[in-house]
Specification:
Flavocytochrome C3, Chain A, domain 1; six-stranded mixed β-sheet; alpha/beta; FAD/NAD(P)-binding domain
Length: about 500
């Protein structure tokens, strides 16, 4: 693919949600923008295209929902309790989930700009609708939303990426594919371009500013072992195979400051026999996030986590690690017929390792690789411990617990006693890594001397210091959009100022 020029105001490395938001924002500042996508056009979109499109956002009630999803019918509004999700609640979730390690300045930007950023995305062609079925269950004829993530992009991750690319095309943003950025053009005056392999040929492309938004290192087996630790080379990669840490390597090479939780990542329960990397067709069907309604056992037939510790939005991103730590790096999710109607759609696809039986003994036999006697004892002990006197309600933390067990259960406990029984085999799927580079509140990359690297900006998974240990569900896309928009505006302004200085 031929470049229109060898010089731009802003180069954006990457082409996912954060990168495209950065490109659009820089273009709003009047910048000539080049987006460099390492993947071919058929695999464009980074990790974003593999998501289901959920976004965490501050909102005060139904009016804010309508501002994002204006095609809601009066009937849908009438039967929906959207509640609210305040800035204080978002801050509290970020503090609690990260054990108070989230960077306070970056967290404030994420929270306070979430609502305005989603409205800006809508203005750029992204369509949203309420997240029925995943963030709300119908109880007593009404849907009650929970977990701070009421909104999902129409068409999921693919719909998000397609909308942003369409907007970029309308605004004259150039996109080049098969463009593998490998080095930053750097001098005493800062960063002034990118050296990249484009369709097998090396190009040096000049720019007034460069934005790195090309993901973490989750697809780099060696780096996973180096930074995340033993066993992480065995995890499945949920998203793109192109997130191998190249942007991080380029930035670190010129002195960017590593920042955040480099030994941490977002990892979930995943189809045991899923493909090595994300599959644009099958990936949405590989997640297994209904564990709050059943139990999870390892090869020894033992439970190893509290399935009902919190809403899945606040636990799913850390439970993949616990699955990876089990013998053989797998586990089984077990349900009975009382709750199978609550299982998410991915449990009802062909891309699933599932066994069914009319007795628990038969189920254990069909699971094959689980200690049968211990599994049956685990179920008996669990059933005996369930607080059946407490009503079950999937929309709230109902306190229906199973106390007194070696691994207690906090909420949504249901006895396993009504056939048919279903078991689903899972392993660990890694989504993205938490470690990145340090940025300031303008999106500028900071070096190890705690000084700005002129002309270099970062967004998306490249930014360290936001997530530690765990992750409030649906905040990744929001973070990418917020910091992409921020970096784009700052880079556009910087490039304009640099151009003006050259012209003097």
């Amino acid at each position: 693919m031929l470049l229109r020029s060898q010089s731009y105001d802003v180069i954006v490395v990457g082409a996912g949600n954060a990168a495209l938001c950065a490109a659009l924002s820089a273009r709003e500042r009047g910048a000539r923008v080049l987006v460099m996508e390492r993947a071919p056009v058929g695999e464009r979109g980074g990790n974003s295209v593999y998501t289901d499109g959920k976004m965490r956002v501050v909102y005060d009630g139904v009016d804010d929902i309508l501002a994002l999803s204006s095609d809601l019918s009066p009937e849908e509004i009438e039967c929906s309790d959207f509640g609210h999700y305040t800035e204080a609640e978002f801050f509290d979730d970020m503090a609690r989930i990260t054990q108070n390690r989230t960077d306070p300045d970056l967290c404030e930007i994420l929270v306070r700009q979430s609502r305005d950023t989603l409205r800006w995305m809508k203005a750029n062609g992204v369509r949203f609708h309420p997240n029925y079925g995943r963030q709300a269950y119908r109880v007593g004829g009404r849907f009650k939303f929970w977990g701070g993530a009421p909104i999902v992009v129409s068409g999921g991750g693919q719909g998000l990426v397609d909308a942003l690319f369409k907007s970029a095309e309308k605004q004259g943003i150039e996109v080049v594919y098969n463009a593998w950025a490998q080095e930053l053009v750097h001098s005493d005056r800062g960063v002034s371009g990118v050296i990249a392999r484009i369709d097998g040929e090396t190009h040096t492309i000049q720019a007034g500013a460069v934005i790195l938004a090309c993901g973490g290192f989750e697809a780099n087996t060696e780096w996973r072992s180096r930074y995340l630790g033993r066993g992480w080379d065995l995890a499945k990669v949920r998203g793109t195979k192109y997130n191998t840490g190249d942007g991080l390597a380029m930035a670190l090479k010129i002195g960017a400051q590593p920042y955040g939780h480099w030994s941490g990542c977002h990892a979930t329960g995943w189809e045991r026999y899923a493909s090595e990397f994300g599959d644009l067709i099958q990936t949405p069907n590989f997640q297994r996030h209904s564990y709050t309604f059943g139990i999870m056992v390892n090869a020894d037939g033992r439970r190893f986590l509290d399935e009902g510790a919190d809403f899945r939005s606040y636990t799913y991103a850390k439970y993949g690690h616990l699955v990876l730590d089990q013998p053989g790096q797998y586990a089984w999710q077990i349900y009975d017929s009382k709750v199978t109607h609550l299982l998410l759609d991915e449990y009802r696809t062909r891309q699933v390792t599932k066994v069914t039986a009319n007795t628990l003994e038969e189920l254990a036999d069909r699971m094959e690789d689980v200690n049968k006697p211990q599994f049956l004892k685990t179920v008996r002990d669990f059933n005996a411990a369930v607080r059946t006197d407490v009503p079950f309600d999937p929309n709230i933390k109902d306190g229906r617990a199973a106390p007194g067990l070696e691994v207690p259960r906090s909420n949504w406990a249901n006895t396993l006693d009504q056939p048919p029984f279903e078991a689903y085999a899972i392993t660990c799927g890694i989504t993205f890594t938490f470690g990145g580079v340090r940025i300031n509140t303008d999106g500028q990359v900071i070096d190890t001397n705690h000084e700005v690297i002129p002309g270099l900006f970062a967004a998306g998974e490249m930014v360290g210091g936001i997530f530690y240990f765990n992750y409030p569900g649906a905040s990744g896309l929001t973070s990418g959009a917020v910091f992409g928009r921020l970096a784009g505006a700052s880079a556009g302004d910087f490039a304009k100022q640099r151009r003006a200085a050259y012209c003097k």
